[in-house]
Amino acid sequence: MPVQRIPRYEMLLSKILSLTAIAHPDYPYVQQALSLVRSIAVEGTLSLLPHLRTMRLFDCYHIWSKLGHSFNHEIICCSQ
After folding, report:
1. From its phi and psi, is residue 35 left (phi > 0), alpha (psi between -120 and 50) or beta?
2. Rg (CA), the chain
3. How far apart are CA 30 and CA 40, in angstroms?
4. Can you give the residue ranges of every domain in the chain?
5. What is the pTM of this model?
6. SS3 letters across 2-64
7. pLDDT tens track for 23-69
8. Alpha-carbon distance 45 to 55, whole Å?
9. CA distances from 36 to 4, 13, 54, 62 (A)
10. Higher model confidence: residue 66 or residue 80?
């Protein structure tokens, strides 16, 4: 999946940065690339949080249903 590549890019750029001399002309560019990849990773994680919360809610709903309890279906709403 493309989303899995972002952490790999972060690891690769971190390794490249650690092996690049500070005086090397490419050092600031590698540093900037690593910073951008990290910000993309954080942004991607934050955008997934509402979806992950909804998935946890559905998991709770299924467990509750398997235990034989009824559930108010109006409580689960993806827009909230």
Report:
1. alpha
2. 21
3. 15
4. 2-75
5. 0.54
6. HHHHHHHHHHHHHHHHHHCCCCCCCHHHHHHHHHHHHHHHHHHHHHHHHHHHHHHHHHHHHHH
7. 999 999 999 999 988 888 777 666 666 776 777 777 777 776 777 76
8. 15
9. 16, 11, 29, 39
10. 66
CA max distance for the chain: 67
Q: Which of 34, 35, 36, 48 is nearest to 3 (CA)?
A: 48
CA dihedral for 62, 64, 67, 72, sign (positive or negative)? negative
